[in-house]
Amino acid sequence: xxxxxxxxxxxxxxxxxxxxxxxxxxxxxxxxxxxxxxxxxxxxxxxxxxxxxxxx
Length: 56
Ligand SMILES: [Zn+2]
Hints:
Elements: E1 11-14, E2 20-22, H1 23-26, E3 49-52
Antiparallel strand pairs: 1-2, 1-3
Bound molecules: zinc ion (ZN).
Protein name: HVO_2901 family zinc finger protein
Organism: Halohasta litorea
């Protein structure tokens, strides 16, 4: 079974709605990222979403 590249540690911040969520919630295939917010359509790591360094 292929292992996804998401480790689930990093948080992503949505630049549109301002919410933060685990990386694993924003992608299903480790390639295409989009905000999990129901009313938000921001997508793209480094575009609509940006990575937040978690402490550790
Ligand atoms: Zn959003």
